[in-house]
């Protein structure tokens, strides 16, 4: 009901705006000086009160426009709300579609593109229409949105998510729903899984097209700028394909990695069990596997003395092992994992050589993976270190036991799918319809106030296109859990990546096709600084103490100040 009320209110405001801003006719008196007029000796300067002669063109021939400051503020607000509604509809439709069809193609390919659609639309229309001179003037709106959206995601929104989602940090791991440290800058914060670090690294890689486009400027060359834009466009498009492909394959990669970690838990449990049953040590004094002891263990396990261990005998061996770190793993699963790893002849039995080789291989792996800082060839130390490392690896890979289940609700699923498609269609139509008038309003406001259009779009437009994403990210992060924090920061890094590849591809295509001049060195520098600082911060750590939020938020005013100094004080281009 509240959702419908918002739509009725928006439509009412829009209709009122159309009526208010319709064609108005009036007479005006031109103030001219004439030698025939008498003067009373008092000279009045009335030029600054005279009516402006500038005009504006109605978008699509009927949407209102104005040259006044307040009128353009009103238009920017109304069109911004409509773009916010578009982003919200696209987000809701995407989530419904993901719920029905699961990750894979939908989650990896369509959802990231749909999330960046409002920004891409605004960038596209900023330089699509009008003469080359008009496009060159308005395209700064597109660059302002591109830079402002990326910077806002990685600074204000990123930092806010750390603040609202903070928990106590113990050994760089956030304790779910425990917040007793207050605003301690080092002992309070959030932590994520390893996939968030991968997302941050991909975002760092996604800035390569910006570097490519800037090469002619770095070399003070004017002849190669158009070619550099084309090369940058190709690189950005290839990175877009690579990123979407990774998103499609990520669930499969994650399952494979988790399966391998669980397999390591099984082998570790087996080796610990064998160590307890061993008549001697599993390792010799020189640290090599003790094959004699391992052969004795084989003989003890081969209860029917047929020189082979069957799956029944293997089950009898491990029936007493408690694999506490492995979720939903029964004895049959453990037997299958061990048999698959040891049975190199694929006859579903393990002979003595296969048993010795299998145990020796895993003993050597434990030695290589364990820390060597305490005691030479300490078997207990090796096992404990390997156990801690494997447990940490599994924890980073799967913070909250994320599920890839797909909803199969029959008739209800069909209705949900239809609803999702309608929401996506409506959101796309709104974004396509009102992107152009919003850009025009920003450009007119810039003319009326003499404020560069870049700064208006840098600050104002991301509030419209990113507000839905920002609110949902902050609310999601406030649940004080590692799983929600991982999802939140992965989405923020993913959104910035899509800006750097999809939105930049649209922008570069616009510049290349229209033959526009690339004069955005200061803006590119700011994007590079913010992406590299926040990307490298997330690439090499999985915990974000509270001090990282201060760093992130301060980068926003720093970015504005840097662009102003470089563009309008030093005159960079």
TrEMBL record:
Keyword Amino-acid biosynthesis listed: no
Chief place where the protein resides: membrane
Record keywords: Antiport, Calcium, Calcium transport, Cell membrane, Ion transport, Membrane, Metal-binding, Repeat, Signal, Sodium, Sodium transport, Stress response, Transmembrane, Transmembrane helix, Transport
GO molecular function (one): calcium ion binding
Pfam families (alphabetical): EF-hand_7, Na_Ca_ex
Membrane topology: Multi-pass membrane protein
Stored Gene3D superfamilies: EF-hand (1.10.238.10), NCX, central ion-binding region (1.20.1420.30)
Domain EF-hand span(s) in chain numbering: 330-365
Transmembrane region(s): 69-90, 97-125, 145-165, 198-215, 227-249, 420-439, 451-477, 489-514, 520-537, 544-566
Domain of life: Eukaryota
Signal sequence bounds: 1-26
GO biological process, one term: intracellular calcium ion homeostasis
SMART domains (UniProt xref): EFh (SM00054)
Subcellular location: Cell membrane
GO cellular component: a single term: vacuolar membrane
PROSITE patterns reported in the protein's UniProt record: EF_HAND_1, EF_HAND_2
Family of this protein: Belongs to the Ca(2+):cation antiporter (CaCA) (TC 2.A.19) family.
Name of the molecule in the record: EF-hand domain-containing protein
Organism, as annotated: Quercus rubra (Northern red oak)
Lineage, broadest ranks: Eukaryota, Viridiplantae, Streptophyta, Embryophyta, Tracheophyta
């Amino acid at each position: 009901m509240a959702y419908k009320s918002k739509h009725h209110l928006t439509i009412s405001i829009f209709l009122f705006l159309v009526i208010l801003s319709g064609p108005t006719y009036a007479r005006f008196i031109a103030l001219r000086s004439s030698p025939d007029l008498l003067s009373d000796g008092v000279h009045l300067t009335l030029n600054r009160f005279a009516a402006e002669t500038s005009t504006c063109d109605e978008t699509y021939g009927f949407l209102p426009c104005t040259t006044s400051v307040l009128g353009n503020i009103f238009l920017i607000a109304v069109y911004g709300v409509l773009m916010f509604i578009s982003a919200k509809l696209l987000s809701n439709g995407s989530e419904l579609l993901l719920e029905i069809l699961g990750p894979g193609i939908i989650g990896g390919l369509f959802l990231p593109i749909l999330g960046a659609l409002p920004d891409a639309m605004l960038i596209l229309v900023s330089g699509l229409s009008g003469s080359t001179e008009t496009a060159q003037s308005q395209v700064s709106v597109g660059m302002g949105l591109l830079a402002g959206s990326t910077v806002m995601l990685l600074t204000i929104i990123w930092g806010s998510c750390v603040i609202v989602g903070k928990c106590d940090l113990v050994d760089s791991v956030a304790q779910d729903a425990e917040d007793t440290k207050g605003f301690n800058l080092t002992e309070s914060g959030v932590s994520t899984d390893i996939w968030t670090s991968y997302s941050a690294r991909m975002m760092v890689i996604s800035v390569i097209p910006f570097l490519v486009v800037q090469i002619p400027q770095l070399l003070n060359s004017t002849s190669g700028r158009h070619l550099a834009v084309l090369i940058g466009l190709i690189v950005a498009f290839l990175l877009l394909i690579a990123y979407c492909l990774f998103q499609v394959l990520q669930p499969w990669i994650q399952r494979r990695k988790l399966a391998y970690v669980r397999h390591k838990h099984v082998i570790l449990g087996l080796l610990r069990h064998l160590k307890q049953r061993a008549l001697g040590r599993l390792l010799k004094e020189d640290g090599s596997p003790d094959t004699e002891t391992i052969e004795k263990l084989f003989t003890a396990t081969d209860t029917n003395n047929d020189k082979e261990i069957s799956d029944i005998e293997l089950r009898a061996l491990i029936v007493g092992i408690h694999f506490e770190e492995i979720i939903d793993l029964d004895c049959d699963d453990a037997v299958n994992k061990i048999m698959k790893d040891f049975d190199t002849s694929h006859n579903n039995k393990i002979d003595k050589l296969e048993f010795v080789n299998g145990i020796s291989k895993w003993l050597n792996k434990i030695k290589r993976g364990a820390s060597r800082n305490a005691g030479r060839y300490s078997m207990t130390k090796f096992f404990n270190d390997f156990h801690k490392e494997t447990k940490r690896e599994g924890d980073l890979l799967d913070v909250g036991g994320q599920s890839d289940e797909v909803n199969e609700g029959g008739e209800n699923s069909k209705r949900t799918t239809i609803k999702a498609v309608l929401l996506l269609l409506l959101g796309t139509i709104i974004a396509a319809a009102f992107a152009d008038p919003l850009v025009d309003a920003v450009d007119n406001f810039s003319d009326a106030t003499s404020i560069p259009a870049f700064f208006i779009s840098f600050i104002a437009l991301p509030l419209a296109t990113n507000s839905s994403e920002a609110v949902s990210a902050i609310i999601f992060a406030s649940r004080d859990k590692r799983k929600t924090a991982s999802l939140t920061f992965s989405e923020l890094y993913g959104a910035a990546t899509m800006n750097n590849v999809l939105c930049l591809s649209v922008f570069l295509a616009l510049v290349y096709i229209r033959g526009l001049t690339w004069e955005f060195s200061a803006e590119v520098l700011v994007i590079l600084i913010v992406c590299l600082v926040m990307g490298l911060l997330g690439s090499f750590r999985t915990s974000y103490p509270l001090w990282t939020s201060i760093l992130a938020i301060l980068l926003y005013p720093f970015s504005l100040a840097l662009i102003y100094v470089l563009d309008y004080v030093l005159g960079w281009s």
